[in-house]
Predict the structure.
Amino acid sequence: MSLFTEFTIFVLAIFVGFEVISKVPTTLHTPLMSQTNAIHGIVMLGGLIVLGYAGDGLEYVIGTIAVAFGAINIVGGFMVTDRMLGMFAKKPKPKADAKAGDGKGGGAGK
Amino acid sequence: MISLAVLEPGGDAATALYIVSFSLFILGLKQGTHPSTAKRGNLIAAVGMAIAVVTTLLLDGMGNWGLVALGLAIGSGVGAYASIKVKMTEMPQMVALYNGVGGGAVALIAWSEIRHGIHIGGAMPLEDLIPTLLAAIIGSVSFWGSNIAFAKLQDLIPTRPLAVPGQQIINAVLGIGVIVLAIVIAINNEPPSQFLFILILIAAAILGNLVVLPIGGADMPVVISMLNAFTGLSAAAAGFALQNVALIVAGTLVGSSGTILTMEMATAMNRSVANILFSGFGGAPAVAAGSGEQRPVTSIGAQDAAIKLAYADTVVIVPGYGLAVAQAQHAVKEMANQLEARGVTVNYAIHPVAGRMPGHMNVLLAEADVPYEQLKEMDEINPEMSRTDVAVVIGANDVTNPSAKNDPNSPIAGMPIIEVSEANEVIVIKRSLSTGFAGIDNDLFYEPNTSMLFADAKAAAGEIAAEIEQL
């Protein structure tokens, strides 16, 4: 992949990122952050690659820690986001003023 | 060394799978625009991640499987345990830690890349070396900066700004030093010097510490968002170094998200990012406005508050970080339940910086089963304020201070606020008349339609709920 191809991808990704994420409501910004933490766990791929060609003790240690750090981000990030969004997805309890909720089925619930 | 070696690195099949993977990230984030779809979106992004990881494991050149398994097991175990155990009030700390390990991983990968380049021998191509150096710098700054942010949020070190004399100069010297070292490595790249590279890691580490230490507790939402953006950028840089399209796109998405949140938080405080980074405000007793002078306030008890609330038509609750500290969200929800049972309309007005990270207060209230529809953003609720009978401020201070609007000399002048003083009556539940993060007096407390209920937020909300039930 040429440097310019990489730059093209980078620039387009900036625009996609701004476009998509500016539509996330303030209410969901904390889960957004933990989800982007999880997506950032993509660096574990880098850890796997460098561990693949690690050749001495120090490189084994560096690579293993990098993989572990990445895995913390991925597993922890997605799980805690799921936990938080579960709280938002809860259906409002039936109330006197019968606001009828948002009429959403339980499909996305746990 | 065994290898599954099904896919060629950089080959068509691997690249295609990475494209599927980052497309799922984008789709997942798109679903995050509404609470009803966000959970599914998170799952979609997780599937994308699984595809990316499996693809990488199948690449030719993978190896050291025992260590791969060890790293995966430790990381997954720690991540899973933490995500189950963490309290919602502690989410800012957790995100700070995740930012930190993310940046740390990138710095370590960069170090490994440099060593790899040295082993291969000869000149390391600049198009690999430059992004590797960038990844190392940004990764190291975010790792150490995030650790300090975590320590501040966890109260391991004081949240007030800690600055050493000549801080700006030291930071500038470190920043320039890091860049000079990087240029020296890039010029003498046959092979790149590992010694200088480690110096870069260390200088960037000191810089990360020094940049975050002087930032006060009130500015934490900005700092966390900014470190989030940094870690994203560092991942994108690592993607350039490893020529991995999944890393470039995912890192850039994270960087965009962090940048948007940083700007929104700074806007919500009416300050520039540079001002937050370099002024050491957000904890300093900025102005001694009105100090010494004793102004009269109206103080009421839980019973009076209950009566005011029970006979209102519309009540707006304005929660602040104090509510979270007192763990009062469930008691407040109980109070709201009592009011709703009497036919009172209850809404919650959430200032963008009400918690310690973007959107934090919403999560705390969602945890207490407050329906999503009742969580109103500032711009949505302010026009309603003049039609509100009672506004209840719980553990919030600066975000309700009318001096932001009325006093051009106030340190928070121009900061958007929840305009509670527009409501017919205001009840402020607070332990004392002490100042908020900004260290300034709140004129709201002395207004004629404001009543102060001096108590712990949780106890007060519980008492009010009990009193309403008695009525």
User: Anything to note?
Assistant: Residues 31-91 of chain A form one domain. Residues 93-110 of chain A have pLDDT under 50 and may be disordered. Chain A touches chain B through 89 residues (CB under 8 Å). The CA atoms of residues 92 and 101 of chain A lie 6 Å apart.
